[in-house]
Specification:
about 525 residues; alpha/beta; 2-enoyl-CoA Hydratase, Chain A, domain 1; 3 domains; 8-stranded mixed β-sheet; about 40% helix; about 15% strand; elongated
């Protein structure tokens, strides 16, 4: 018994960093961490229960067992159960499944036992409703596993369908660092939230597959650079390195784990002066968001993609929420096709995991014109109405200033009556379309009949003022298009009160699909 136990412990040691010092040194030389270093940083101390540590690549016909144990530890992927953030949320809420692809083993490629380990863990995650954190670095499929005689093309592997099938069932956070190609990239792209380091390259094929397809010869660092994929929406959060990626993953997971008992808030008084005196001027919306939510709690997703809207996760009085806001510094806050896609997908994410939505609206409406229509505006903008109509968690909408046309309705879930509470700051202004456009369209005859350019300009200014006065927040509230007009300094208090009064929608037992794009 003693001999067998010691033999097993020797096998376990072979899969650790101490027995693989050369591989560890190579990772450190690149400025990267080992897979087990990332794992140790992610999970709570002493909480990890590993699955399949003794696995090696299915290549016994090609290599000795000693070589396989030395060079293909755990078959290139660490899988297991753990707790993450237990100190903040308690052990029960902190339960999670973890997948860490190990690039130091056969470039993190996906072999036969590699897939089986992931499949086993994902089955447990589904059965026990465990969130999953996955480090996705790796080179995709591995053709050299010659021991497997019952697989031909390998297209019956269930990993991708199982992982994608967890959409809307459990939260999934995926992290990319270094090279992430082919099957590894497909797993990354299916996740609910993606985090990547600046030294990441992500693509649905690596250099060999691209060249083999006759599409040219490229270096790995020419394929899917992180900065570009952050711009086009593949990456939700871009970070400097694996340490920051791990910290962000823990923060992201926390929003789905529950409320925080302690929190702090900024002085709300400056919100009264947050908007420029001239209604035509733009302003920075993020400082407003950060002053409304708990200090340090806002984590923005897909910042450059669809830049006229801001999406992110935050907390109010410790309770996790989603924040949707217009950025008037981009297109004046108008929703173009890309921003509409971004917002719709964000609503689906919140809806799937029952996180409340706070919408801070200041928009002149949807972006229009021939160029917009070439971006499939009708389909992509309409998608935001569909997402709003099916949204079930608590919903609070605050109009900071402009609320015009279909775009304002979409920011409110399709109708100003759609949120549980719809309020406006005193600067709020509302209309079927922007004031200037409404005057030019509705009073074209009068403007054309003006005796001079000066008279035409004076008439135009007067008509705009009249429409503005008719569409002020106070008038909209008098016609019950709003529930109330509020002091900007009370925004946080009103949101907190609204969320506490409407309660918490229970999560769906079966989950709902999160449309990644």
């Amino acid at each position: 018994m003693t001999d067998l136990l010691e033999e097993w412990r020797d096998l376990e040691r072979l899969a650790g960093d101490e027995a693989r010092s050369e591989a560890r040194a190579k990772r450190h030389a690149k400025g990267y961490r080992t897979a087990r270093e990332n794992l140790a940083d992610l999970v709570d101390d002493g909480s990890f229960l590993e699955y399949g540590r003794a696995a090696v690549a299915a290549q016994r016909e090609r290599r000795t067992i000693e070589e396989l144990r030395r060079d293909t530890a755990a078959d290139g992927v660490i899988t297991g159960l753990a707790t993450i953030n237990a100190d903040a949320f308690g052990v029960e809420a902190a339960r999670a499944a973890v997948v860490v692809n190990d690039y130091s083993v056969l470039a993190g490629t996906q072999g036969y036992f590699h897939h089986r380990k992931i499949d086993r863990l994902l089955d447990v995650a589904r059965a026990r409703r465990l969130p999953v954190v996955m480090y996705a670095e790796g080179g995709g499929g591995r053709p050299g596993d010659v021991d497997v005689k019952v697989v031909n093309a390998g297209l019956t592997v269930p990993t991708f369908a199982t992982w994608a099938g967890l959409s809307g069932v459990v939260p999934r956070v995926a992290i990319a660092n270094g090279y992430c190609f082919a099957g590894n990239a497909a797993l990354l792209g299916c996740a609910d939230v993606t985090v990547a380091t600046r030294r990441s390259w992500i693509g649905m094929a690596g250099p060999a597959m691209i060249e083999g397809g006759g599409l040219g010869t490229y270096r790995p660092d020419q394929i899917g650079p992180a900065e570009r994929l952050f711009d086009n929406g593949v990456i939700d959060v871009l970070v400097e390195d694996e340490a920051e990626a791990t910290a962000v993953a823990k923060q992201l997971l926390g929003y789905f784990q529950g409320d925080l008992a302690t929190w702090t808030a900024a002085d709300p008084a400056p919100l009264r002066d947050a908007l420029p005196a001239d209604r035509r001027y733009s302003y920075h919306a993020r400082p407003i968001v950060e002053r409304v939510v708990d200090e340090g709690s806002f984590l923005e997703l897909r910042r450059p993609y669809g830049g006229s809207v801001i999406t992110g996760l935050a907390r109010i009085e410790g309770r996790p929420i989603g924040v949707l806001a217009n950025d008037t510094k981009v297109l004046g806050g108008a929703l173009d096709a890309t921003a509409s896609d971004k917002a719709a997908r964000f609503l689906q994410l919140l809806d799937a995991f029952c996180l409340p939505l706070v919408s801070l609206c200041d928009t002149p409406g949807f972006m229009v014109g021939p160029a917009s229509e070439e971006q499939a505006a009708v389909r992509r903008m309409s998608r935001l109405f569909v997402a709003g109509a099916s949204f079930r968690p608590p919903f609070v909408c605050v109009f900071l200033r402009k609320g015009y046309g279909l775009g304002a309705m979409a920011m409110a879930g399709g109708s100003l009556q759609r949120p549980d509470v719809t309020v406006a700051w005193p600067q709020g202004e509302f209309g079927a379309m922007g004031l200037e456009g409404a005057v030019r369209l509705g009073f074209a005859r009068e403007l054309e009949a003006a005796e001079s350019d000066a008279a035409r300009e004076a008439l135009f200014d007067r008509l705009v003022r009249e429409l503005y006065d008719a569409g002020k927040a106070a008038e909209a509230a008098a016609f019950l298009e709003l529930d109330a007009v509020i002091d900007p300094a009370e925004t946080r208090a009103v949101i907190a009160a609204a969320l506490s009064r409407v309660g918490r929608e229970p999560p769906r037992a079966a989950g709902r699909l999160v449309d990644t794009w």
